[in-house]
Specification:
The complex is a heterodimer of chains A (572) and B (172). Chain A is α/β, with parallel strands linked by helices and 572 residues long. Helices cover 36% and strands 16% of the residues of chain A. Classes of the chains: A alpha/beta (572), B alpha+beta (172).
Chain lengths: 572, 172
């Protein structure tokens, strides 16, 4: 027997709940995709989703972590805020990794969590968690909605804060009684944030100073970070670099902001960066950082970072300027506005010797790898994917060896094609992020390059791939190990491979098939080109188990505690 | 070095938690915080005394405070002409004949006795932190049973002399 609560049927025009009002605010923000998972405290919201006639799409994940990483992938490729809904307690806590990841990598997200009813908050009620307390240090801002009247304003503010200035995640916690409350009213959504006024336009004096400094530079260098991508300034960066013949290095997250195949491009800098990029950072006399935060994986030992350089730093977030590296010319501004101001200046440049030296480094010390007779060489695999996709795919990754090889060998020529977990370094990010990326860019080829470790952290999202009919290609760089952990144990722990080698892995082909998805295994380089061709021409999702050499290491490398000029593995 | 920093903030729920959380996360050592409503409705004033290691660290502190959405204005007033006050309540052990003696000690500090029992008396003192500290020091021999301080609250004097660097080099 089923017990049913008796309900008086109501016509749809008869009542409006807080949840309906909430959905209306999302429609007003032109939200087209929601990544979510229902539960007790968001039942009124999901009822409103069900009844809504608006044309947004709701994507049901299989774990809240899947929802939030998908929203990150969506935000990265579209530039629009990713929207997430989860229930109270465990629903909200399952989002924590993704929220922190978005905070570290400045991704605009607006996350709505259900909360127990206002009257029982603080009583350790069923599925209650202090979401505000938990998320305060990992969000740009957060709210708990106190009354239905403030709901439209809070949502409006949340979208504004998430997507302006330096983007970031904003959490809005909505108690169940508020989403369930019946209302007839409409409420104002006007807001005032006197403490939040991001500075977009650069100070003209600093721009003049910067132009003069560049005019006197003998060894200038541009370091381009993700800020260039967020401000959609790739075209301005290219024009600026070409006009004054300035060499460019990228951070990991800045890849794609300047064409990877451009003659002035030195490649990625940092722990696994190119010799040319790292030596340019070490030797330059003027370093212009545009939208990067001098992360420790980029700088190496701070004492040896750009020791002779006068540093100029363009950043929308003033707190990043001077945080790690003393900065002579601070420019608090949007990257695009600053580059436009610089382009209007007359800068004289004369640094032919410097450029010659950099080109010499580029040619003499390129990235290298060995081919394999047995299994696949992982670097070669990435090279192959680059060729087959003509360097034009959206690529997502987890963290680790496969991520570094992808960054090194998939030369990104266009912006917003590179979706990776940089700051937090989150395993399990790449696959769900690819789902969000494909939903955000339905006409593009999306490839998730993942490790066998990371993939197993979020592979339940294969159901979503099937359900949403998304043609994502999942490339598992399968070395039966936690490759980067294994590499560090080899290099720094005398080959004591503690808990980093997998004895058992699932049969990924059968696994994919059980989800109704095509599965392929590639074990030999000789078979790979033809099989990959088949995978990429297949109209639908494919999981490709690529068996790669386990002992392969990521080189070159700056060992922890070492300086930019102390790279190892530069040559075979 | 100790700095006195004031912040004008929007009086929104969780603002104190957000700011102390940030200070904790970024490893700043808080000597004291005092918070209260300001002359404007919806705006609160916070006064921090915070230990910083150097000027770069100080710059980070003010920038991170400024970055908070609720923070409207941040000022490092350490080297300005300021009025800074804190209040302390001090419960000291005292029998009958010690009371007069303690009275004698506290009167130059313009402190007052606000509670007396058989074995103790409670003294209230207001002033700059060094004055409060000096009184506490003098009362130590009598046995301090309980002590509580509000932390410093401060703002700029109405008139700022042109060169203020020498005037208040070390106000604390």
């Amino acid at each position: 027997m089923t017990l049913k609560v008796k309900q008086v049927p109501k016509s749809e025009t008869e009542f409006m709940t807080g949840a309906d009002l909430f959905i209306q605010t999302l429609v007003d923000e032109q939200v087209d995709t929601i990544f979510g998972y229902p539960g007790g405290a968001v039942l009124p919201i999901y009822d409103a989703v069900y009844r809504s006639k608006a044309s947004f799409k709701h994507v049901l994940s299989r774990h809240e972590q899947g929802s939030i990483h998908a929203a990150e992938g969506y935000a990265r490729v579209t530039g629009k805020p990713g929207v997430v809904i989860a229930t109270s307690g465990p629903g909200a806590t399952n989002l924590i990794t993704g929220i922190t990841d978005a905070m570290m990598d400045s991704l605009p997200l607006v996350i709505f969590t259900g909360q127990v009813a206002s009257g029982v908050i603080g009583t350790d009620a069923f599925q209650e968690a202090d979401v505000l307390g938990i998320t305060t240090p990992i969000t740009k801002y957060n709210y708990q909605v106190k009354t239905i009247e403030e709901l439209p304003r809070v949502v409006k503010e949340a979208f504004h804060i998430a997507s302006t200035g330096r983007p970031g995640p904003v959490v809005v916690d909505i108690p169940k009684n508020i989403s369930a409350e019946v209302t007839g009213g409409s409420y104002p959504n006007t807001f005032s944030l006197p403490g939040y006024q991001p500075n977009v336009n650069p100070n003209p004096l600093q721009i003049t100073k910067l132009a003069e400094t560049l005019s006197h530079a003998k060894k200038p260098l541009i370091l381009a970070g993700a800020g260039v991508l967020f401000s959609k300034a790739s075209a301005e960066l290219k024009e600026f670099a070409e006009k004054y013949e300035l060499p460019v290095a990228n951070t990991l997250l800045g890849l794609g902001s300047f064409p990877g195949s451009h003659p002035q491009m030195l490649g990625m800098a940092g722990m696994h960066g190119t010799y040319a990029a790292n030596m340019a950072l070490y030797e330059c006399d003027v370093l212009l950082n545009i939208g990067a935060r001098f992360d420790d994986r980029l700088t190496g030992n701070l004492q040896h970072f750009a020791p002779n350089a006068k540093v100029a730093h363009i950043d929308i977030d003033p707190a990043e300027i001077g945080k790690n590296i003393p900065t002579a010319i601070p420019v608090v501004a949007d990257a695009k506005a600053a580059l436009q101001a610089l382009l209007a200046k007359d800068i004289k440049t004369d640094h032919e010797d410097w450029q010659k030296g950099l080109q010499h480094n580029k040619l003499t010390f390129p990235l290298w790898y060995d081919r394999s007779d047995e299994l696949l060489s992982p670097q070669w695999l990435i090279d192959q994917i680059h060729q087959i996709s003509e360097g034009d795919a959206i690529i997502t990754t987890d963290v680790g060896q496969h991520q570094m090889w992808t960054a090194q060998y998939y030369s990104f020529d266009k912006p917003n094609k590179w979706v990776t977990s940089g700051g937090l370094g989150t395993m399990g990010f790449g696959f769900p992020a690819a789902i969000g990326a494909q939903l955000g860019a339905p006409d593009e080829l999306v490839v998730a390059v993942v490790g066998d470790g990371g993939f197993q952290m979020t592979l339940q999202e294969l159901s979503v791939l099937k359900e949403q009919q998304l043609p994502v290609k999942v490339i598992i760089v399968n070395n039966q190990a936690l490759g980067m952990v294994r590499q560090w144990q080899e290099s720094f722990y005398e080959e004591r491979y503690s808990e980093s080698l997998f004895v058992e892995n699932p049969d990924f082909v059968k696994l994919a098939e059980s989800y109704g998805i095509k599965g392929v295994r590639i074990e030999k380089e000789a078979d790979a080109p033809e099989m990959l061709e088949e995978v990429f021409s297949y109209n639908g999702p494919v999981v490709v188990d690529c068996r790669v050499v386990q002992k392969e290491c990521v080189y070159p490398m700056i060992a922890p505690g070492k300086g930019l000029h102390e790279m190892i593995g530069v040559k075979r | 070095m100790k700095r006195i920093i004031t912040a004008t903030v929007q009086d929104r729920s969780g603002v104190l938690n957000r700011i102390t959380g940030m200070l904790h996360k970024r490893q700043f050592n808080i000597d004291s915080i005092s918070v209260g409503k300001s002359e404007t409705e919806g705006i609160s004033k916070m006064t921090f005394v915070i230990e910083v290691s150097d000027h770069q660290n100080l710059e980070q502190l003010t920038k991170q405070l400024n970055k908070q959405i609720d923070v409207i204005k941040v000022s490092d007033i350490t080297e300005k002409a300021i009025v800074a006050r804190e209040l302390a309540l001090i419960k000291v052990g005292s029998n009958g004949h010690q009371r007069a003696e303690i009275q004698g000690i506290i009167s130059p500090f313009r402190a007052s006795v606000i509670d007396v029992s058989k074995e103790s008396m409670t003294i209230q003192v207001t002033g700059k932190p060094d004055k409060v500290e000096a009184l506490i020091e003098l009362l130590h021999p009598y046995g301090i049973k309980e002590l509580t301080k509000t932390g410093v609250t401060a703002f700029l004097r109405g008139h700022q002399p042109k060169a203020v660097t020498d005037l208040h080099a070390t106000p604390l």
